[in-house]
Amino acid sequence: MLLHHRLLPRLVFLPSTHTSTSASTLLRPPRLPRHLSLSPRFCALSHLAAPQTVDESDNEGPPHGDVQVKLALDRLFVPPGATVDAGDQEAVSARVLKGSNIVLGPYARGDAQVVNADFVKSSVRPDDCPRDGLPEFALVGRSNVGKSSLLNSIVRRKRLALTSKKPGKTQCINHFKVNDSWYLVDLPGYGYASAPQEARTNWDEFTRNYFLSRESLVSVFLLIDASIPAKKIDLDYASWLGQNKVPMTLVFTKCDKRKKKKNGGRRPEENVETFQGLIREYFEAAPPWIMTSSVTNQGRDEILLHMSQLRNYWLKH
Ligand SMILES: Nc1nc2c(ncn2[C@@H]2O[C@H](COP(=O)(O)OP(=O)(O)OP(=O)(O)O)[C@@H](O)[C@H]2O)c(=O)[nH]1
Ligand SMILES: [Mg+2]
């Protein structure tokens, strides 16, 4: 079993019981086999979250009283080691990171600042990646979604990772070491329509092999462009990560883009809400998500705190 699977308790898929609407049918990821629903290993950690009921009655009538508390808590990501008291919603909401559903737990400590960051190497095969076993986070998403820009924003450097207006800029698995103790990994994007089919498939396979084989991978950060409506390819990617039990955080990018007309008439917050609604149908519990902008640095400190708690938990277990 890969070490990083220990961070999975809240990222288990659930086959959807909802009836389809026309919008969600268009974007619906493939149905998941039943055996991927909650396993005993994950149940052992279910005290971390309020219990969830998934029968059809959940859809009947407006939530009220205890039910409302329960539904709200179900939408939070409660990190390993944290407990949530369903009767103390105020205390819980004080621990939720701004622009996210991520609750700050006991593993978030004072190591969430970037002191130094260096490019280490580009690898063309998962086997070529650094072998020092330090924990790492991989940034993946459609070409041009802003992976390299987010990396630069996180480490407060303008050009540590190369960015471009043209999709397809990043090639290979690029490792950047932060504070001499953990890695940020910049990856090639998926879904670049102008790339030759063969090259596109190879990069995709290459990235997915890395996710499946890399023992020091703490979590994948799947970037979604919040300035445009939800794309099926992103839901499919999230679905694939879930089916393969790869821990993930959804990172919404370009949240500074507010020109309604240019962005199909919808604000980033609306696109984020829609994406979450679609993804909720397939997860037993909400995956962690966070809103960011590499232009305003929105979400930068919050991402660092989230990474810190995941890393500290990973190192201790
Ligand atoms: N407004 C805005 N633009 C952004 C943001 N992040 C990235 N961009 C722009 O989006 C374009 C692509 O950014 P990159 O960081 O190169 O994207 P990438 O995902 O690394 O792309 P590939 O390496 O080609 O897969 C660049 O023109 C960036 O300036 C953001 O948060 N807000
Ligand atoms: Mg890039």
UniProtKB/TrEMBL annotation:
The reply to whether Cell division figures as a keyword in the UniProt entry is yes
Record key words, sorted: Cell cycle, Cell division, GTP-binding, Magnesium, Metal-binding, Nucleotide-binding, Septation
Where along the sequence do coiled-coil regions lie? none
- Organism this protein belongs to: Urochloa decumbens
Q: Where is the EngB-type G domain?
A: 133-313
Name of the protein in question: EngB-type G domain-containing protein
Lineage top rank: taxon? Eukaryota
What does the sequence similarity comment in the record state about its family? Belongs to the TRAFAC class TrmE-Era-EngA-EngB-Septin-like GTPase superfamily. EngB GTPase family.
Q: Which residues cross the membrane?
A: none
Recorded GO MF terms: GTP binding; metal ion binding
* Ion transport recorded as keyword: no
Task: Enumerate the Gene Ontology biological process terms.
Answer: cell division
Cofactor(s), by name: Mg(2+)
